[in-house]
Design a protein that fits this description.
This protein is an alpha+beta fold. 28% of the residues lie in helices and 50% in strands. It contains 2 helices and 4 strands. A 4-stranded antiparallel sheet has the order 2-3-1-4, with helices on one face.
Length: 96
Protein backbone atom coordinates (compact mmCIF):
# COMPACT_ATOMS: atom_id res chain seq x y z
CA UNK A 1 0.00 0.00 0.00
CA UNK A 2 1.23 3.45 -0.94
CA UNK A 3 0.39 6.74 0.75
CA UNK A 4 -1.44 9.32 -1.35
CA UNK A 5 -2.97 12.76 -0.94
CA UNK A 6 -5.99 14.04 -2.83
CA UNK A 7 -6.30 17.83 -2.93
CA UNK A 8 -9.74 19.23 -3.74
CA UNK A 9 -10.88 22.78 -4.39
CA UNK A 10 -14.63 22.95 -3.98
CA UNK A 11 -16.85 25.81 -5.12
CA UNK A 12 -17.49 28.55 -2.56
CA UNK A 13 -20.98 29.17 -3.98
CA UNK A 14 -22.58 26.04 -2.52
CA UNK A 15 -24.05 25.46 0.93
CA UNK A 16 -22.10 23.86 3.79
CA UNK A 17 -24.03 20.58 3.63
CA UNK A 18 -23.46 20.27 -0.12
CA UNK A 19 -19.75 20.90 0.41
CA UNK A 20 -19.46 18.20 3.07
CA UNK A 21 -21.45 15.86 0.80
CA UNK A 22 -18.90 16.44 -1.97
CA UNK A 23 -16.02 15.59 0.40
CA UNK A 24 -17.87 12.49 1.61
CA UNK A 25 -18.44 11.45 -2.00
CA UNK A 26 -14.71 11.78 -2.71
CA UNK A 27 -13.94 9.67 0.39
CA UNK A 28 -16.45 7.10 -0.87
CA UNK A 29 -14.64 6.96 -4.23
CA UNK A 30 -11.40 6.27 -2.36
CA UNK A 31 -12.88 3.39 -0.37
CA UNK A 32 -14.52 1.94 -3.50
CA UNK A 33 -11.12 1.95 -5.22
CA UNK A 34 -9.73 -0.14 -2.35
CA UNK A 35 -8.17 2.70 -0.37
CA UNK A 36 -8.32 3.62 3.30
CA UNK A 37 -8.82 7.26 4.27
CA UNK A 38 -6.40 8.18 7.07
CA UNK A 39 -6.95 11.94 7.48
CA UNK A 40 -9.04 14.79 6.08
CA UNK A 41 -7.61 18.27 6.44
CA UNK A 42 -9.83 21.30 5.81
CA UNK A 43 -8.06 24.56 5.05
CA UNK A 44 -11.26 26.56 4.63
CA UNK A 45 -12.05 29.28 2.12
CA UNK A 46 -9.02 30.67 0.29
CA UNK A 47 -8.51 33.06 -2.58
CA UNK A 48 -7.61 31.34 -5.84
CA UNK A 49 -4.50 32.34 -7.77
CA UNK A 50 -6.66 32.89 -10.85
CA UNK A 51 -10.37 32.79 -11.63
CA UNK A 52 -11.81 29.33 -12.27
CA UNK A 53 -15.32 29.25 -13.76
CA UNK A 54 -15.64 32.96 -12.86
CA UNK A 55 -14.94 32.22 -9.18
CA UNK A 56 -12.16 33.81 -7.17
CA UNK A 57 -12.50 31.73 -3.97
CA UNK A 58 -12.79 28.06 -3.12
CA UNK A 59 -12.73 25.68 -0.17
CA UNK A 60 -9.55 23.61 0.09
CA UNK A 61 -9.55 20.00 1.33
CA UNK A 62 -6.67 17.54 1.57
CA UNK A 63 -7.51 13.86 1.97
CA UNK A 64 -4.68 11.48 2.90
CA UNK A 65 -5.22 7.81 2.13
CA UNK A 66 -3.48 4.47 1.68
CA UNK A 67 -4.15 2.54 -1.52
CA UNK A 68 -2.70 0.27 -4.17
CA UNK A 69 -0.85 1.82 -7.09
CA UNK A 70 -3.80 1.51 -9.51
CA UNK A 71 -6.28 3.30 -7.21
CA UNK A 72 -5.36 6.96 -7.99
CA UNK A 73 -6.31 6.55 -11.65
CA UNK A 74 -9.74 5.20 -10.67
CA UNK A 75 -10.24 7.95 -8.09
CA UNK A 76 -9.26 10.72 -10.52
CA UNK A 77 -11.66 9.32 -13.10
CA UNK A 78 -14.53 9.58 -10.60
CA UNK A 79 -13.56 12.96 -9.12
CA UNK A 80 -13.16 14.47 -12.60
CA UNK A 81 -16.94 14.31 -13.21
CA UNK A 82 -18.03 15.54 -9.77
CA UNK A 83 -20.11 18.70 -9.62
CA UNK A 84 -18.79 21.59 -7.53
CA UNK A 85 -15.13 20.42 -7.70
CA UNK A 86 -13.16 23.19 -9.37
CA UNK A 87 -9.73 21.51 -9.30
CA UNK A 88 -8.20 18.33 -7.92
CA UNK A 89 -4.79 16.73 -7.71
CA UNK A 90 -3.81 13.28 -6.50
CA UNK A 91 -0.15 12.78 -5.58
CA UNK A 92 1.90 10.03 -3.97
CA UNK A 93 3.46 11.08 -0.68
CA UNK A 94 7.12 10.41 -0.04
CA UNK A 95 8.09 7.74 2.45
CA UNK A 96 10.20 9.24 5.23
Amino acid sequence: MNKYELALIISARIEDDARTAAVDKAKDYITRAGGTVTEVEEWGKKKLAYAIQKMNEGFYYFIQFDAASDAPAKIEQDVRIMDNVLRFLCVRKDEK
